[in-house]
């Protein structure tokens, strides 16, 4: 026999109040609707369930036998199923996985790690880099909680995104480099000896596409796949490297490098956080997105929500 859960709620309310009218008021439904529900349950169980004595309805033996289990079932449903889950970062344990590029790790990870150590010490922060064709599925399955950076391929209807700040490209040279001034002209850019980093990130891929689309020919003296060796190579040569401003300024903090603006017209790229619609309302995901937004919202410019509707945290 299949029974509507609401019928069991009526059974329990009538037993506890001793009155159909009072039970209806407790349940927030009309008295006729309560009576009709009780009638359906009586027919299903083939028992009157309650017999009136004086002003109160008293349970029959059959009703008394199922009321205890009914209360347990309803308590479990209300407490464990229908109650919205909560997330307490100070006590939770587990792993949060972010998808970041090499540049993204340098920009985002230090601040996120410091925040996690304070607010969520039981969470282990894990990062990985995935190809675009893998990332969407990993986010759908929950293997990646959040992607942060420049991911123009994440455009599906099930992917939410929020802009954090704009990615600005600059040129980095050693202190004492023959190039002077705060901005490089297009002619100087063409003539300079370039250190080219192709790390597989979409930002630098877009930069390469821009250079190609503008017909800008460069003199590439050295090409490499990672950024770790960039400072040593640039410091000891006349090589110039194009980097995101956030990375270039970190390299320049020691005073041995100069940051120069590229020729006019170089594009800016929005860095965003991305998450899957399946986890939009999950408390852990909401907390994580709020922390990222608070840390980096407007980092290099005003942030704006990006999706079909306003993105809420």
UniProtKB/TrEMBL annotation:
Domain HTH lysR-type: 3-60
Provenance organism: Mesopusillimonas faecipullorum
UniProtKB keywords: DNA-binding, Transcription, Transcription regulation
SUPFAM superfamilies: Periplasmic binding protein-like II (SSF53850), Winged helix' DNA-binding domain (SSF46785)
PANTHER family membership: HTH-TYPE TRANSCRIPTIONAL REGULATOR LEUO-RELATED, TRANSCRIPTIONAL REGULATORY PROTEIN
Family to which this protein belongs: Belongs to the LysR transcriptional regulatory family.
InterPro entries for the chain: LysR-type_TF, LysR_HTH_N, LysR_subst-bd, WH-like_DNA-bd_sf, WH_DNA-bd_sf
Lineage: Bacteria, Pseudomonadati, Pseudomonadota, Betaproteobacteria, Burkholderiales
Protein name in the entry: LysR family transcriptional regulator
């Amino acid at each position: 026999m299949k029974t509507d859960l609401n019928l069991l709620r009526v059974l329990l309310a009538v037993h506890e109040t001793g009155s159909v009218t009072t039970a209806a008021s407790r349940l927030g439904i009309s008295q006729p609707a309560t009576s009709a529900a009780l009638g359906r349950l009586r027919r299903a169980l083939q028992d009157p369930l309650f017999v009136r004595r004086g002003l109160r309805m008293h349970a029959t033996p059959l009703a008394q036998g199922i009321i205890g289990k009914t209360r347990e079932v309803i308590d479990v449903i209300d407490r464990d199923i229908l109650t919205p889950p909560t997330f307490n970062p100070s006590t939770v344990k587990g792993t949060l996985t972010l998808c970041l590029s090499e540049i993204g790790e340098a920009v985002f990870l230090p601040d996120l790690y410091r925040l996690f150590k304070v607010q969520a010490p039981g969470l282990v922060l894990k990062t990985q880099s995935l190809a675009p064709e893998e990332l969407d599925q990993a986010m759908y399955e929950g293997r990646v909680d959040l992607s942060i950076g420049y991911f123009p391929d994440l455009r599906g209807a099930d992917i939410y995104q929020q802009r954090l700040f704009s990615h600005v490209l600059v040129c980095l040279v050693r202190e004492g480099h023959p190039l002077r001034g705060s901005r490089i002209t297009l002619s100087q850019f063409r003539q300079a000896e370039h250190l080219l980093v192709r790390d597989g990130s979409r930002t630098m891929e877009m930069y390469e596409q821009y250079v190609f689309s503008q017909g800008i020919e460069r003199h590439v003296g050295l090409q490499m796949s990672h950024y770790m060796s960039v400072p040593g190579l640039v410091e000891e040569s006349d090589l110039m490297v194009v980097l995101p401003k956030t990375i270039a300024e970190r390299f320049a903090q020691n005073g041995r490098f100069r940051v120069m603006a590229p020729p006019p017209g170089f594009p800016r790229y929005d860095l965003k956080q991305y998450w899957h619609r399946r986890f939009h309302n999950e408390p852990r995901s909401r907390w994580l997105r709020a922390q990222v937004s608070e840390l980096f919202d407007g980092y290099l410019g005003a942030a704006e929500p990006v999706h079909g509707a306003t993105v809420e945290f």
